[in-house]
Amino acid sequence: MLITPAYAQTAGGGTDFLVTIFPFIIVFAIIYLLILRPQQKRIKEHRAMVEAVRRGDTVVTAGGLIGKVTKVVDETEVQVEIAEGTRVRVVRSTLSDVRSKTEPAPKDPPKAANNKADDTDTGTKS
Question: What does the alpha-carbon distance between residue 109 and residue 27 come to, in Å, rounded to a whole number?
Fold first, then answer.
């Protein structure tokens, strides 16, 4: 017997491919669910936070500097006051956190108070 029995078993190898690739599919699914998906969500939240920065917000830069946004220069830069009278221009993508958000400015300015005595009691009787 010069032919080994191992050659006779290779004829039905269709299921071996599925069994071989199945662990790779499971590992990729686990990596996607535990690593890639949360990272994409965090990047999306950071991008939205950086785009929403406006004047008056207290921000933290990637270098650890804490300051107040004094001016939005353009789409990519903001001016941050890091000390009394010290302002620096910072690239928006380097902002790591927005500590305190300011309320958006009202669209309509507040109207002057009405000084009519219609709503108050003047103390006189008619």
Answer: 58
In the beta sheet, which residues pair with residue 63? none
d(CA 50, CA 98): 8
**CB contact at 8 A, 98 and 59:** yes
Cα–Cα distance, 84 to 116 (Å, whole number):
44
Statement: 18-100 belongs to CATH 2.30.30: yes
| pLDDT tens string 45-55 | 999 999 999 99
pTM (2 decimals)?
Answer: 0.59
Name every residue whose Cβ is closer than 8 Å to that of residue 52 and which is 6 or more positions away in sequence: 98, 101
